[in-house]
Amino acid sequence: MTDVSRKQSFLTICKVKPERIFLMDALGALLTSFFLCCILAQLESYFGVPIQVIYVLSGIAGCLFVYSIIGYLFSKTRWKSFLIILIICNISHLVVSLAMIVLHSEKLTAPGYTYFILECIVIIIVVAIECKLLVSQK
Fold it and tell me: What's the CA gap between 54 and 51, in Å, rounded?
């Protein structure tokens, strides 16, 4: 299966059941929280990310996980309003992550920069998919 057909099949699934986008977001938030707490926190000196920053970002990801699950469970008819809030929260998480990169740039190592840049890229892709779904569903 090519990348194009995977993207098309993902968007097709979302068109059939838009609330599934919340499951995708929940999985991403859970993975982010896991990586932050279980990997970056344990290797603080390797990544150069202060432990307080790790816990703040992990807490935000945990809240996004809970909201995404709630959105999946309760958004059968009003999924657009849930999705708009989720998009705003994801953009906020992106801004906070970027701010952490700037504020702690002197402490971050190359692996720390790599992690945050990849996280920001993933968040941008997720927000783009969510926005496309929101616009495509009337």
Answer: 5
